[in-house]
Design a protein that fits this description.
The complex is a heterodimer of chains A (394) and B (418).
Chain A (H helix, E strand, L loop, with lengths): L2 H7 L4 H9 L4 H6 L4 H15 L13 H21 L2 H19 L4 H10 L5 E2 L6 E6 H7 L13 E2 L2 E5 H23 L5 H6 L1 H20 L12 H11 L6 H13 L4 H8 L7 H11 L13 H6 L18 H13 L9 H15 L5 H19 L1
Antiparallel strand pairs in A: 1-2, 2-4, 3-4
Chain B lengths: L4 H8 L8 H16 L13 E4 L10 E5 L4 H11 L3 E5 L1 E3 L7 H4 L1 E4 L1 E6 L11 H23 L7 E5 L4 E6 L2 H4 L3 H12 L10 E9 L2 E9 L7 H19 L2 H9 L6 H11 L2 H7 L3 E2 L3 H15 L19 E3 L13 E3 L1 H6 L2 H4 L8 E5 L4 E5 L2 E5 L5 E4 H9 L4 E2 L3
Antiparallel strand pairs in B: 1-2, 1-3, 3-12, 4-5, 6-8, 7-8, 7-13, 9-10, 10-11, 14-17, 14-18, 15-16
The chains are: A mainly alpha (394), B alpha+beta (418).
Chain lengths: 394, 418
């Protein structure tokens, strides 16, 4: 493999950056020369497919050095395009898409290439683990600082050897992906809006259309039906607290606070929340009313918002064991709900669901929303039923 | 002192009332002690927050004053001697401005990684005497140090310092640079590792089915597999745990072993006896060292539960049900200060010293010379500095000051009127 082919795949490598600086085309040529029209198209394509989350795309195959060069130079162009559009959602999606592309490519590479990329990301690692399979080692503190926020990555799932976690190549590549994602998102965030005027002129129509589409998605995302409460899409933490309430488990203060503020933010008022809780055994409406009204702002000076994932974890309310893949992408329980609804809208299976499940879930909602008069009841039903049965059985 | 809401608050309150006699006695003894034994200011002294529990001058709980910071050692010594704290704490975190009241204004710079082991957290603490609790918590502390901190986590002795808490536990502070910046989430991961939370998902023990031909017949045997004891981390720990459990039940009297096994769902007397029969054969245990055993799923569950249980450390939890370790803003007892409920000193220990350390002897800091008269309303007894003290009900008695303070502080007695 020639050097350019390597750079085309991994434009983050220092050598690739050097090549761009010394051998690569000047910005002027890149933007106007018809020789680079293909690179400009590829840059637009990279950004559009990131925004559409089109990550099914196969890794590129290059037939010539020219194609390799086009792929390589399209990377800085695409980054500039994201900066020009200046939307946080686009920056985030671009970071996700580019880091996934990186790990897809890297999985097929020998250890040396993986090492070279990891060094670029300043990951302090060692090679030569306790066995052949687990060849990439990090100090556990470095591991914790970089590991994705997922169950499979819990420290207890790894065997520590003198303070070091030894990973198989695939896992180490996944770690590189996570680091690249965070780093790219930070870099893009810093450069938002900072683009030379000539770039804007050349990419004018792409910038406008991308901005429109991003704004549309962001608005849709935000609205995504907070009016109707869909318990199936609640984050694991809120589901756990609700289940515990039904099972007479004592809920810590932070847990009750989280549930009430969560429901309140979804648009429920104090009465709605009281009704929602009324199926809970041992529920004392009068005692709870004051608490709920205080939290929702009625009768108190402040309206509270639900705590973020960090706070939930600090207070031990986040059921770390039950976190799923959505949790790893979000930092706030509300963001989970928003994303889960969004996925339902698009028939994307939830963690632990099959595609068929997802399609059925969507149909079910469609049927429900047609019958809006019964909306209040559908909220309570799934919870109230099993409890009633249990009591009947006694 | 850079900020002190406490002084201002105190001035706004009604005039202080005299302390009740037990508190007045304790305050006097502590003041005399600190006169010559002021706790040395801890390292990175100007970056730490201090918190003191003072004496209740009106009814209600004693005032706990946090957010104290000292610019100079003189400031620190003056406050300490003027107010004579009942309990003294300092932060394991370092701050830009430790005296600020709001966390955001403090400017968090990092925090030691701490482990707080207290007899309260042991599963059967309630049934033990104070002496037994202290012995049990020390074994648990040793396990934390040897198995996890010095073992899996690879820390050296120089990376940490240990203290006896003055009460019923031990603290370990890991102070090496690599841990100071860890956030709460990362610390919780460490807690989960040490307490084995989530180990069961790892399927470290599993059943393997082997098929083989015996002449014309197809045979099938099921084998229990588990990690070899010499593997690193939790794998090896579970492997060692399995062997430990097997050896333990093997050496029990037969009936007791059967009882122990049949406590588990799915293990009836027949299964238990078959299992015991097998593990009494030395060759079977030999094979198990290689990670093999021929047992069913119920025994598998029994072994994995018990093996993990043997490996975990019972870590303490704070007021918010949050393990102390995960709290990056925690206050912890000041080394060399005296615990206000025992009069025992918060003693710094090296690993070597820990081995022979007997808190009820070695942490006694108050004088054994002068005697004070105390009276116990209900009677009671305790051991301190190798002496057994029996306080008869309602009868005043002169005992050495260290013992008298211990009795008063633990509410066993009150100072006797002269």
């Amino acid at each position: 493999m020639g050097a350019l082919a390597l750079y085309a795949k991994y434009p983050v490598l220092p050598d690739a950056r050097d090549w761009l600086r010394t051998e690569g085309p000047k910005l002027d040529a890149l933007l106007t020369d018809f020789l680079y029209a293909q690179a400009r198209d590829r840059a637009r394509e990279r950004v559009w497919s990131a925004l559409r989350r089109n990550d099914e795309e196969d890794p590129p195959v290059f037939l010539s050095e020219v194609e390799e060069e086009m792929e390589l130079v399209s990377h800085p162009l695409a980054r500039m395009l994201v900066a020009a559009v200046d939307e946080a959602l686009l920056a985030r999606r671009f970071a996700v898409a580019e880091s996934k592309r990186l790990s897809k490519l890297l999985e097929r590479e020998p250890g040396e290439t993986v090492s070279a990329v990891a060094r670029t990301f300043d990951i302090p690692f060692a090679r030569g683990g306790p066995d052949e399979e687990h060849d990439f080692g990090l100090h556990f503190t470095e591991y914790l600082a970089r590991a994705p926020n997922e169950k499979a990555w819990k420290l207890v799932k790894r065997d520590l050897v003198k303070g070091h976690v030894w990973l198989a190549k695939d896992d180490f590549v996944r770690l590189c992906e996570e680091v690249y994602k965070r780093r790219l998102e930070d870099e893009l965030q810093d450069r938002q809006g900072q683009v030379p005027t000539v770039f804007r002129e050349v990419f004018q129509s792409a910038i406008t259309r991308l901005k429109q589409e991003t704004e549309r998605l962001a608005a849709e995302y935000k609205e995504a039906g907070f009016a109707e409460v869909d318990q199936e899409r609640f984050p694991p933490c809120i589901r756990r607290i609700l289940t515990d309430m039904h099972n007479h488990v004592n809920i810590p203060h932070m847990g009750r606070f989280a549930v009430v503020t969560f429901l309140h933010t979804l648009g429920m008022d104090a009465d709605g929340i009281l009704r929602f809780f009324s199926s809970v055994p041992d529920f004392d409406p009068e005692k709870s009313r004051y608490q709920i009204e205080h939290i929702t702002g009625k009768g108190g000076p402040t309206e509270y918002t639900p705590p973020g994932c960090g706070t939930m974890q600090t207070y031990g309310v986040c059921p770390l064991e039950e976190r799923d893949t959505i949790c790893s992408d979000i930092k706030h329980p509300l963001a989970y709900y928003r994303k889960a609804l969004w996925m339902k809208e698009r028939n994307i299976p939830m963690p632990g669901e099959t595609k068929e499940d997802a399609a059925q879930a969507k149909e079910a909602t469609a049927a429900k929303s047609g019958d809006s008069a019964k909306k209040g009841e559908t909220d309570k039903k799934p919870k109230a039923k099993p409890v009633a049965n249990k009591e009947a059985a006694r | 002192m850079t900020t002190n809401g406490a002084t201002r608050q105190d001035e706004a309150r009604p005039p202080p009332q005299p302390l009740p006699p037990p508190l007045a006695y304790m305050r006097r003894v502590l003041r005399d002690h600190y006169q010559d034994h002021l706790p040395a200011p801890p390292d990175r002294f100007g970056r730490r927050e201090f918190g003191f529990i003072f004496w209740p001058r009106q009814p209600g709980p004693p005032p706990f004053v946090r957010h104290l910071a000292f610019r100079t050692r003189d400031d620190y010594a003056r406050t300490f001697m003027r107010r004579v704290p009942w309990h003294a704490y300092y932060s394991t975190a370092y701050y830009q401005s430790p005296g600020e009241r709001r966390m955001v204004d403090k400017g968090w710079l990092g925090a030691e990684l701490i482990f707080d082991l207290d007899a309260d957290h042991l599963p059967d603490a309630k049934a033990m005497t104070f002496e037994e609790q202290l012995a049990a918590v020390k074994i648990e502390f040793r396990k934390l140090l040897d198995e996890f901190l010095l073992g899996d986590f690879g820390f050296g002795e120089d990376d940490m310092y240990l203290t006896f808490s003055g009460g019923r536990g031990y603290h370990c502070h890991v102070t090496t640079d690599s841990v100071l910046g860890l956030d709460s989430r990362a610390r919780r991961e460490i807690v989960d590792y040490v307490t084995g939370k989530g180990v069961h998902d790892r399927r470290l023990i599993w059943t393997e089915t082997r098929r083989w031909r015996d002449g014309a017949y197809e045979q099938e045997t099921r084998h229990l597999r588990f990690p070899k004891p010499d593997l690193p981390g939790w794998s090896g720990r579970v492997g060692r745990g399995v062997l430990g459990v097997v050896e333990e039940v093997r050496d029990l009297p037969w009936d007791e072993a059967v009882r122990r096994l049949t406590q588990y769902d799915g293990i009836g007397p027949a299964k238990a006896e078959a299992f015991l029969d097998k593990v009494r054969d030395p060759r079977v245990v030999e094979r198990m060292r290689e990670g093999w055993a021929d047992q069913g799923p119920a025994v598998e569950r029994f072994l994995s539960r018990e093996a993990v249980q043997r490996g975990v450390v019972a870590l303490g939890e704070g007021e918010t049900d949050e393990p102390v370790t995960a709290d990056v803003k925690r206050l912890i007892r000041l080394p060399d200060s005296l615990h206000g409920k025992t009069g025992l000193r918060v003693v710094r220990l090296t690993l070597d010293e820990l081995a022979d350390f007997d808190p009820l002897v070695d942490a006694v800091a108050l004088p054994m010379g002068p005697e004070d008269r105390v009276v116990s309303p209900k009677g009671g007894s305790f051991t301190l500095a190798g002496e057994r003290y029996v306080l008869p009900e309602g009868e005043p008695m002169a005992i050495p000051r260290a013992a008298a303070f211990f009795a008063v502080a633990s509410r066993l007695a009150v100072p006797a009127e002269r």
